[in-house]
């Protein structure tokens, strides 16, 4: 941070993006700051503080759950809408991030802005088929969360665009979900593996299944073999999951633990 | 962008305006300085420097009423904000009920973590007059203590909650 010449506190998103795109300022956006405040590259000369932007609320819009990118983990943990959505999995995931002091500062937008193995929300949002609204040059874009880290997007949140909100589709409201973080201690920042399981039932059969995995690579991934086996009512879905994990080189311990956790989730349906 | 929305460095310092413990202050903070270091350099030494990496919680201060890690907050981001340090809570002659309860419960050993613990506890009790043990433990999960097993501190927060309810604060 020693090369910082300007601190900017814009009060609207358009101004913030204009400043990001103005090459004179060499600006970078920081939200909660818990991940990058200490590791700001020396090339950055303007610190763009997002605290005054109107991107904090959590609301329902068109039946979807819309979470402002500036909402902190603590706010998401306590929010009634988040607690009631998909069995409260979004709040539960927020509550498992690090410590209360970090949860007071860290925001969901900051957590998903860069791919990072230990970030909590990417694995949840991938599993919930979320969309992300970006403010970039020329206006806003609503993209699938799964496209956020693809090179084809051509945008880097915090450097040439801003994430303003996360949209969780209405169809996921009644999904039965579970988020699991396997870590050395409850408040460990790092985890061995993070798992998101979801299922929707129609009668006795499953009409939808989602299994996403984090902490094994910077980007979370879906487990197609496990999802397919769950939808087929295959009792050996957990074995299929082990094959997904082996493909990701999860290692024996993670693979065994995660497969057992999926078996437990299926049993609970 | 409005002119007031941007601050420029002058000879390696940023001039910020904020309220510290209820008083309006103008502080010169160094380029790249974090809130913890700025506060200590300006004399608020109750805020402790432990790990300096956001793990221990001894640098906890209340920024706009919320406990945050002073070692992870760039000092300039407090511009225009309201800051409470442990010095703003009570004094030796007139301690805050939380400070009384911590002393009387024997929750203080070396004392290094206590300013942070008390500020985290204050935020909890400001929003929850009668917290459960689980809520107290969750609120304090970022404040590490290397002397105790946290039992006395949890008891102290319960006791302080009772004192505050009795006083009607």
Unreliable segments of chain A (pLDDT under 50, ≥5 consecutive)? Answer: none
Count of helix runs of chain A: 10
State which percent range the strand residues of chain A make up.
25-35%
Percent helix among the residues of chain B?
25-40%
Order of helices and strands of chain A: EHEEEEHHHHHHEEEEEEEHHH
Number of strands of chain A: 12
- Overall number of structural domains of chain B: 2
Mean pLDDT of chain B: 95
**Biggest sheet, spatial arrangement of strands of chain A:** 4-5-8-6-7
Domain module tally of chain A: 3
Oligomerization category of the chains in this entry: heterodimer
Q: Could you state the order of secondary-structure elements of chain B as H and E?
A: EEEHEEEHHHH
- Biggest sheet architecture of chain B: 5 strands, mixed
Sheet with the most strands, sense and barrel status of chain A: 5 strands, antiparallel
Rg of chain B computed from alpha carbons, rounded to a whole number of angstroms: 17 Å
Low-confidence stretches of chain B: none
Description:
The complex is a heterodimer of chains A (269) and B (169). Chain A is globular and about 60 Å long. Chain A has helices at residues 13-21, 73-78, 80-84, 89-95, 100-105, 108-113, 121-127, 224-231, 237-247, 252-268; strands at residues 6-8, 27-30, 46-49, 58-61, 64-68, 131-136, 139-144, 162-168, 176-182, 193-202, 205-214, 221-222. In chain A, 30% of the residues lie in helices and 25% in strands. Chain B starts with 5 loop residues before the first strand and ends with a helix. With 169 residues, chain B is of the alpha+beta class. Chains A and B meet through strand 1, helix 1 and helix 5 of A and strand 1 and strand 5 of B. Strand 1 of chain A pairs antiparallel with strand 1 of chain B.
